[in-house]
Amino acid sequence: MNKEEWFPLIDEQGNTIGKATRRECHNGSKLLHPVVHLHIINNDGELYLQKRSTNKDIQPGKWDTAVGGHIDYGETVEEALAREVREELGITHFIPIHVLTYIFESDQEREMVNTFYTVYTGKMQIDPVEIDDGKFWTFSEIHENMGKGIFTPNFEQEFLRIESRLIRAFKQETMKKDCE
Q1: Checking CA distances to 124, which of 52, 65, 118, 177 falls within 20 to 30 Å?
Q2: What domains sit in the chain, N to C, each tagged with a CATH number?
Q3: Percent helix, strand and coil across the chain, each to the nearest 5
Q4: Is the overall model pTM greater than 0.85, yes or no?
């Protein structure tokens, strides 16, 4: 028997105002709850994406952000990010850099998305329950496949909002390594 997942309910400033179950948050009720996303860039400037498990209740089988997950009730953004990255990709050491926080709304849910990126080239071990596949994509490959229904709508919207920041971050990391 699965343990019931509880998510914090928040106001638009991110303050916790209550709690609700996963089911309650994903039934179209529009209860605002927080999530974390992590974009991973490699040394070649490519972006790692995960292919969501076909067993997922939302957007099954679509390519999405490297890591994405809900913040559990009583958990901080940082704790949730570290937990989700460890659970989904087996990564325990990385340096997250906050990119933006925004509200995403679909027919099923309403989320406050806390978005981060990291430059990472180490080993990854995907969780086969959560993820069907994972690979690095060039930004050109992502653009060529936008609007074709292979990415989640949330990923497409978020990618377009942060693409220039990801490119800048990669260039800065490359320059730092060249100076070392």
Answers
A1: 177
A2: 6-179 (3.90.79.10)
A3: 30, 35, 40
A4: yes
How far is 75 from 32, CA to CA, in rounded Å? 16
- Alpha-carbon Rg for the chain, nearest whole angstrom, is 16
What span, in angstroms and rounded, lies between the C-alpha atoms of 5 and 72?
7
pLDDT, tens digit (0-9, with 9 covering 90-100), for 107-132: 999 999 999 999 998 999 999 999 99
Cβ atoms within 10 Å of 88's Cβ, excluding its own: 22
E strand segments, 58-172: 63-65, 67-70, 97-105, 110-119, 131-137
Contact in structure between 167 and 119 (CB atoms under 8 Å) = no
In which residue are the tokens 């040394």 written? 43
